[in-house]
Design a protein that fits this description.
Helices cover about 25% and strands about 30% of the residues. It contains two helices and five strands. Strand 2 and strand 3 form a beta hairpin. The longest helix has 22 residues.
């Protein structure tokens, strides 16, 4: 309702049944904060949120991408909630990445391993 001209797409792949609660909560909070940033800052026309499972090496991956105004990566303030997102994901042995440029939109990728305390690889 806040952004009637913005199209939101949600894509959820087949997920395992036994996702640890801490992983589920962390990914939920990252999605929530990322979507809040889109509403507040992006001026996007299209937003896509994807959640998928990579069986080998057992990783859940969340991607949020918009075609909004973007920003210089070096100019991003911690006030956008990105530091908290990164801390949540890395505390679970995951990897958090953002890509953005002015007038090029914004992309957030969060990958979390499902096999205990193993760290995510650089794959995917």
């Amino acid at each position: 309702q806040r952004l009637p001209a913005t199209r939101f797409t949600l894509a959820i792949g087949e997920l395992p049944q036994d996702i640890d609660e801490s992983v589920a909560i962390a990914l939920y909070r990252v999605a929530q904060e990322g979507l809040t940033n889109v509403v507040r800052h992006a001026e996007a026309r299209h937003v896509t949120l994807e959640l998928g499972f990579v069986p080998a090496p057992a990783i859940l991956r969340l991607t949020l991408q918009d075609d909004g105004r973007g920003v210089e990566l070096a100019a991003i303030r911690h006030g956008l909630g990105l530091l908290g997102m990164r801390e949540r994901i890395e505390a679970l042995g995951g990897i958090f990445r953002i890509e953005t440029q002015p007038a090029q939109g914004f992309r957030l990728d969060a990958s979390v391993p499902l096999g205990g305390s193993e760290r995510c690889g650089e794959r995917g």
